[in-house]
């Protein structure tokens, strides 16, 4: 018997959010059929909206002073603020977004090169956690610091 294939492309509105798309397809003919009940099919498909997240960061300190090898001091360097922003550029609401950040905090010979003094969150909950026990801390290799622009 002859067959016909259909491709349906649906476009959804930002103002009405649906959980499911329901489509009814019915084939009709001028001929007499013995089983017309199989000419109708109802499809119900769950809808999942694609997020459009934009992640940006900005710091108020753009140059960092790295002391020569062996001359690290115990005093802390200048305090600076880094702002990380997560924006939803899409028109669909997004829930349960979690952002994990690992901060490079160790230099040559496990010297501390960065410490977090405080965390402030806007419209979010921020949790500062030390690395889990057993987590391998990866120090910043000395070569990475030597080849930076001066």
From TrEMBL:
GO molecular function, one term: integrin binding
GO biological process: cell adhesion mediated by integrin; cell-cell adhesion; cell-matrix adhesion; integrin-mediated signaling pathway
A GO CC term attached to the entry: external side of plasma membrane
PANTHER family assigned to the protein according to its UniProt record, in alphabetical order: INTEGRIN ALPHA (PTHR23220), INTEGRIN ALPHA-10 (PTHR23220:SF26)
Protein name: ITA10 protein
Taxonomic placement: Eukaryota, Metazoa, Chordata, Craniata, Vertebrata
Gene from which the chain derives: Itga10_1
